[in-house]
């Protein structure tokens, strides 16, 4: 082929020189391989390296199985992880955002696939992130069957990265939980959050920056550095919620609501049917100290309750006769839980908070 004179040949064109280091990617895979394989359930077929993850669903185990799926990311909490150069727990957040949505309909998480986009593949950093994802899968009882690490030097800065994942679960068709099962008189059981989880971080980071808060200092009211508090990984409730259903059945457990963006009232309302409302009593728990800290620097209470979970990461609507058993079972599994309210006649499909925090 004749090369036009205004297009001179450049020697040494390589993919690495263009911003994609295949060797670094392969080193990252080698570093994470053990953690990923440790998540394998018996249904996983094959291992890392294939073009697709294979999972042998035991259809004989179910009468009428429905597959459930959820896709999510971590959001701007990643910017905080980058700022502190701590990358080992955001993978847990990623898994939690997906599997705790799955279990809201009663589905058991089966497997997850992740997507890591970055400006530059730093094998140790990618391995730390994916090891966190694997730990999240272990906590959820799910397999990490595959994923993708993509290096986008032309789109992202060298230290930039973002995470996304899709989780797949299964639930019996006649055991799907949701607003169709919720009825007047149901008791709302709250499950404590582990922190801000993975929502509201654009607001959190703005307050930290504009108030000049030191991420390496321990503010009054907290018992650890602010950065450590803010990076606390999201609690994964999936196995605890499934244990609750396993013990009490769908006659006892009617719905779960995962408290994410939109806050407690906004998400609880999603599982309340027309003609009913969930009334949640703030006096049954204390507003977390970290939320109080942000409020002391100008975040209005109304905004806190829309942007943050305010101490409650999951709620269950249960039959009143099993409410105490539900609280005892969750607490026994290490999830602080309490009766936080009831479902009453009211504006259709709504939830509201009453009283003042304890």
- Beta fraction of the residues? 15-25%
Secondary-structure class: alpha+beta
Total E-strand runs: 12
Estimate nothing, just give the exact number of structural domains. Answer: 2
Amount of helix: 25-40%
Categorize the overall geometry: globular
Unreliable runs, pLDDT <50, ≥5 residues? none
CATH fold description of the largest domain: Phosphoribosyl-aminoimidazole Synthetase, Chain A, domain 2
Largest sheet: 6 strands, mixed
Cα(first) to Cα(last) distance is 79 Å
Chain-averaged pLDDT: 92
Pathway: Purine metabolism; IMP biosynthesis via de novo pathway; 5-amino-1-(5-phospho-D-ribosyl)imidazole from N(2)-formyl-N(1)-(5-phospho-D-ribosyl)glycinamide: step 2/2
Keywords: ATP-binding, Cytoplasm, Ligase, Nucleotide-binding, Purine biosynthesis
Enzyme class: ligase
Domain PurM-like C-terminal: 183-352
Short description:
The chain contains eleven helices and twelve strands. By secondary structure, the chain is an alpha+beta fold. It folds into two domains: 19-46 and 62-172, PurM-like, N-terminal domain (60s Ribosomal Protein L30, Chain: A), CATH 3.30.1330.10; 179-354, Alpha-Beta Complex (Phosphoribosyl-aminoimidazole Synthetase, Chain A, domain 2), CATH 3.90.650.10.
């Amino acid at each position: 082929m004749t090369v036009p004179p205004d297009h001179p040949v450049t020697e040494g064109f390589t993919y690495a020189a263009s911003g994609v280091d295949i060797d670094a990617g392969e080193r990252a895979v080698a570093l994470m391989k053990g953690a990923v394989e440790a998540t394998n359930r018996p249904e996983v077929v094959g291992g890392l390296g294939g073009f697709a993850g294979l999972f042998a669903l035991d259809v004989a185990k179910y009468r009428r199985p429905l597959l459930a799926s959820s896709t999510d990311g971590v959001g701007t909490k990643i910017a905080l992880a980058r700022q502190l150069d701590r990358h080992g727990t955001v993978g847990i957040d990623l898994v939690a955002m997906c599997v705790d949505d799955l279990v809201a309909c009663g589905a058991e998480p089966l497997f997850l696939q992740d997507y890591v986009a970055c400006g530059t593949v730093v094998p140790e950093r990618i391995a730390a992130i994916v090891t966190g994802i694997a730990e999240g899968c272990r906590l959820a009882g799910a397999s990490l069957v595959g994923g993708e690490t993509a290096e986008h030097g032309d789109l992202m800065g060298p230290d930039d990265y973002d995470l996304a994942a899709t989780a797949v679960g299964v639930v019996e068709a006649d055991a799907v939980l949701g607003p169709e099962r919720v009825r007047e008189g149901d008791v709302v059981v709250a499950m404590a959050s582990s922190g801000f989880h993975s929502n509201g971080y654009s607001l959190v980071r703005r307050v930290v920056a504009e108030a000049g808060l030191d991420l390496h200092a321990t503010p009054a009211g907290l018992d650890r550095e602010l950065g450590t508090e803010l990076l606390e990984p999201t609690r994964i409730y999936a196995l605890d919620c499934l244990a609750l259903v396993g013990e009490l059945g769908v006659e006892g457990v009617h719905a779960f609501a995962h408290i994410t963006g939109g806050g407690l009232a906004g998400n609880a309302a999603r599982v309340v049917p027309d003609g009913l409302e969930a009334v949640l009593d703030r006096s049954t728990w204390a507003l977390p100290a970290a939320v109080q800290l942000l409020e002391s620097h100008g975040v209005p209470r109304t905004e806190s309750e829309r942007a943050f979970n305010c101490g409650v990461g999951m709620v269950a609507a249960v039959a009143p006769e099993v409410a105490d058993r539900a609280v005892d079972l969750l607490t026994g599994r290490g999830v602080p839980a309490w009766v936080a309210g009831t479902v009453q006649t009211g504006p259709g499909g709504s939830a509201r908070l009453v009283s003042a925090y304890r």
